[in-house]
């Protein structure tokens, strides 16, 4: 055999051996370990549902098939979990979380008390992709369209988690700029609590995605107890988009910012500093879960996004480039 061919053959064998060694190292790290994945909101809502649907399949695609444990660490719209991941959790690839959507993703736009993290520095694994938020009303209000809402003779009470969440800010924006007769009530720990409040007659409506309802109370939709009248961006047909209803330029800019978390989806992330090779394994496993037909069937059944995932590397760039760059004065009236 010519010397050149021997050299090439040796190089190829070395490369294959190196890849095998790397794969073996990945397998040996995760094998026998426990991977903890936490949701930043209580059981029974959309965040918890998306986390648990994903974790049922995650181990299948991680070399070594670790034990995956689903947990909840609720508080402040996901900020409690985000603080823990950033300041306390070991960056070993075995502690991941889904803190939330808007309350978490908008938390660095304007400084807030109690936040100990920099959004851009988390280790992002991936996101299921965009999930349209909808403005829902109880049938007891008689509101079935935006025109019905504008013509309402009495105040309509909207239940929300906390003042800096998208579920609270968007109705407040529409009330201020469009003079919609909406009154906000805050303090619910999760959307399951809001749904119970609707049944009790404590609140008349809410702003959230379909998955937050279909996870525990799909009957509220099928029975017509609640009905959507508007949406955050183009999704279900025949529903107006809030930013297109808006008439004030400042209002349009604010609604555009607030729709960013919905477009990003619900990020799965870990502490800053997870080793690149382990993060690559987790990112690869996440995207394989998103493409898993059984997962997609489960997700679709409970109203979660399928077919449009965002990879961890792209997600890291989107969050650092869009949310971090928003001028604080645009939202200071609503987030301070």
Q: What value does the Rg take, in angstroms?
A: 22 Å
- Based on helices, strands and strand pairing, what is the structural class? alpha/beta
Helix amount: 40-55%
Strand-residue fraction? 15-25%
Beta strand count: 11
Number of helices: 16
Estimate the mean pLDDT confidence: 87
| SSE order, one letter for each helix or strand | HEHEHEHEEHEHEHEHHEHHHEHHEHH
Q: What global shape is seen?
A: globular
C-alpha end-to-end distance: 74 Å
Widest β-sheet, arrangement of strands: 2-1-3
Poorly predicted residue ranges? 18-25
Mind summarizing the main beta sheet? 3 strands, parallel
Description of the molecule:
The protein has 336 residues and is an alpha/beta fold. It is 45% helix and 15% strand. The protein is built from 16 helices and eleven strands. Helix 6 links the parallel strand 6 (156-159) and strand 7 (182-185). Helix 6 (166-178) packs antiparallel against helix 11. The longest helix has 28 residues, at 3-30.
Topology:
Blueprint: H1 3-30, E1 34-39, H2 46-58, E2 67-72, H3 79-87, E3 95-98, H4 102-105, E4 123-127, E5 133-138, H5 146-150, E6 156-159, H6 166-178, E7 182-185, H7 191-200, E8 205-209, H8 211-214, H9 219-222, E9 226-231, H10 242-245, H11 249-258, H12 260-264, E10 267-270, H13 276-291, H14 293-301, E11 310-311, H15 312-323, H16 332-335
Parallel strand pairs: 1-2, 1-3, 6-7
Antiparallel strand pairs: 4-10, 4-11, 5-8, 5-9
Helix pairs in contact: 6-11
